[in-house]
Amino acid sequence: MASKFLREYKLVVVGGGGVGKSCLTIQLIQSHFVDEYDPTIEDTYRKQCVIDEEVALLDVLDTAGQEEYAAMREQYMRTGEGFLLVYSITDRQSFEEILTFEQQILSVKDKDYFPIIVVGNKCDLEGERVVSRQEGEARAHSFGCKFIETSAKCRINVDNAFYDMVREIRRFNKELSRIILDTRLGYPRNSSERKRQSSLRRVRDSLG
């Protein structure tokens, strides 16, 4: 039975121009594919759904990928709870650009780790692929986050990308709360606790 408590999640879709950020977002919200490319400045979409038996209100910010709008990034990076770093598997430059986005997010948040997911879009264009799945997985591993390939056109893994982002936010917040509580209560780190604490090192360090 789904929880009736409505939790809002501020998700931000970032990436270079033309990688399919708007197409992914509109496919999630409206279940159709936008074939024409119309560069976005900034659009917000909302959708209520149930993820793992918990009601969630997704507040999705679709951002500008063009460099001329780079000055707007810091503002949305401050307010976002989770970030989908999107590149096109047919565009190597867009793949390299997500490095910059990840670094900017951590800088603005002043943390060593924050909920993100790497999204390789346009996986339906296999014949035009220039970024391998293994490269995408390796990049996500270096960020310490999940990786998923999607196709907005064919609606492949679209819901999964956004839902996994919500799951990552929930996990992050739960671990953060546990660490804060343990710190306040002054619990010692016994041997059984060390393994868990080691896996949460990035989150713990992000407390500053």
From TrEMBL:
<keyword id="KW-1003">Cell membrane</keyword>
<dbReference type="InterPro" id="IPR020849">
    <property type="entry name" value="Small_GTPase_Ras-type"/>
</dbReference>
<dbReference type="GO" id="GO:0005525">
    <property type="term" value="F:GTP binding"/>
</dbReference>
<feature type="region of interest" description="Disordered">
    <location>
        <begin position="189"/>
        <end position="208"/>
    </location>
</feature>
<protein>
    <submittedName>
        <fullName>Ras-like protein</fullName>
    </submittedName>
</protein>
<dbReference type="Pfam" id="PF00071">
    <property type="entry name" value="Ras"/>
</dbReference>
<dbReference type="InterPro" id="IPR005225">
    <property type="entry name" value="Small_GTP-bd"/>
</dbReference>
<comment type="similarity">
    <text>Belongs to the small GTPase superfamily. Ras family.</text>
</comment>
<keyword id="KW-0488">Methylation</keyword>
<keyword id="KW-0636">Prenylation</keyword>
<dbReference type="GO" id="GO:0007165">
    <property type="term" value="P:signal transduction"/>
</dbReference>
<dbReference type="GO" id="GO:0005886">
    <property type="term" value="C:plasma membrane"/>
</dbReference>
<dbReference type="InterPro" id="IPR001806">
    <property type="entry name" value="Small_GTPase"/>
</dbReference>
<dbReference type="InterPro" id="IPR027417">
    <property type="entry name" value="P-loop_NTPase"/>
</dbReference>
<keyword id="KW-0472">Membrane</keyword>
<keyword id="KW-0342">GTP-binding</keyword>
<feature type="compositionally biased region" description="Basic and acidic residues">
    <location>
        <begin position="191"/>
        <end position="208"/>
    </location>
</feature>
<dbReference type="GO" id="GO:0003924">
    <property type="term" value="F:GTPase activity"/>
</dbReference>
<keyword id="KW-0547">Nucleotide-binding</keyword>
<keyword id="KW-0449">Lipoprotein</keyword>
